[in-house]
Amino acid sequence: MSRSRHRRGRRSLAEFDGAALYDTVILVPARNEEVGVLTSLDSLARQSRRPDLIVVVVNNSTDRTEEFARQFADDESTPQTVVLNFEDNPHKKAGALNYGLNWLREAVGGRLTNTVRHVLVMDADTELHPKFIERARNVIASDPELGGVSAACLGRTDLWRNPWQRYLLGMQIIEYGRAANSRYRRDVHTMSGAGSFYRSEALQSLLDWRGQVFWEDHRNLVEDYETTLALKESGWKVTANQLCIAYTDLMPTLRELIQQRERWSRGTVDTLRGRGWTKFTWHSITTMILGLIGAAYILGWGSTQLVVAAKHGFAQQPLFWLLFSFWIVYPALRVRNLGWKAMLVEGLLIPELVYTVVRTYWLVSSIVKSYVTRVSAWK
Predict the structure, then answer these.
(1) Spatial contact of 228 and 196, defined as CB atoms under 8 Å apart
(2) How far apart are CA 243 and CA 131, in angstroms?
């Protein structure tokens, strides 16, 4: 059984009528997020352009997530907030998001476009930059064909306990920063689940087309990527913006990191297998193939050349020195926006090579699992 609760003393949405009363509505799915949900919600209260409504969907939680969300909702200084409890959700994050959207549609009269202009979807372990909504609104207003603006994700942490953990978290910070700096800006291939700002017409078009915005299937491990493809297939553009920043949690242990990345990579492979080679999937397929080739090159040919050079003398290997210089300079330049410490780590080469081994493992493992194992459903 599911239930919802409005803040006391505020009008319910059913009492409103008229066009575009809600400029920005936030959807926050939260499952066992008692540690970070208040931080995420507080970042919405601090926005320079405050949201008109926040909808928190607590789903399949066994901790105090709902209690903390209601604590935020009952604070009169925060934006209007509704907390929904979806106790039996078999469709993971996609199910929680659709549940919130369906509640919103019923509250505003059946169609999102009746009274809502924009919908922001964000994770409950994410903190948005104070100007995120303001900047995302400006970006989406610049082009009527834009269906969504994705956040540029950066890692947040200072909770390392030992040198290994500091290394692991540091490499994730570099990885996120590098990705934010190199993503396609005009036609981003994945809208980030950490923070994605949608035009309501785009979401309504998916509802009209297939009855759901986020595809409800227990095998859908990457609802953000699948929805990005669906938006493109229905004729919308999507983009990313470096000034729309979302700070997201990092994985503190190797086991948790591999589990997270295997889920993301496995979900991407599953989605690509289902759709095949199209004008909307070719970039992801090519990137994955090039990633495998690059890893094989660095770990295979590169390490072989290093052994040969050490055996016969480095002075006799001009090609090795040329490539070695490239391996140092290019990675360092790609993270210059993160500061000199990140550039130094990349320039040392060894830290990135170790992380490449880990990255190659989860990529290969994900591809194999996509073909030989089945995705378990939520109980």
Answers:
(1) no
(2) 8
Residue carrying the six token digits 């491990």:
221
Number of other residues whose CB lies within 10 A of the CB of residue 365: 15
Residue 3: pLDDT above 80? no
User: Above 80 in pLDDT, residue 29?
Assistant: yes
Distance, CA of 9 to CA of 76 (rounded, Å): 9
DSSP result, 127-160: EE-TTHHHHHHHHHHT-TTEEEEEEEEEEE----
**For residue range 71-124, what is the model confidence (pLDDT) as tens digits?**
999 999 999 999 999 988 888 899 999 999 999 998 888 889 888 999 999 999
Closest listed residue to residue 38, CA positions, set 66, 1, 77:
66
Domains belonging to the chain, first-starting first, are: 3-252 (3.90.550.10), 254-379 (no CATH)
pLDDT for position 110:
80
Cα 258 versus chain centre, distance: 16
Nearest alpha-carbon partner for 240 in 195, 204, 293: 195
Q: Can you tell me the distance from the alpha carbon of 42 to that of 40, in angstroms, rounded to the nearest whole number?
A: 5
Q: Which of 1-10, 199-208, 237-246 is the most confident on average? A: 199-208
Alpha carbon 221 to its chain's center: 12
Q: Report the candidate in 11, 10, 31, 13 with the shortest Cα–Cα distance to residue 22.
A: 13
Helix, strand, coil percentages (3-state) for the chain, rounded to 5, are: 55, 15, 30
C-alpha span between 187 and 190 (Å, rounded): 9
In the sheet with 146-156, reading across from the earlier edge strand, the strands are 3-6, 81-86, 53-59, 22-30, 116-122, 195-199, 146-156, 237-249, 126-128
Please check the confidence at residue 8 and state whether its pLDDT lies above 50.
no
Q: Is the pTM of this model over 0.90?
A: no
Average pLDDT of the chain is 86
For residues 349 and 341, what is the distance between their CA atoms, to the nearest angstrom?
13
Contacts for 67 with CB less than 8 Å, ≥ 6 apart = 34
Q: In terms of DSSP bridges, do strands 195-199 and 116-122 run parallel, antiparallel, or are they unpaired? A: antiparallel
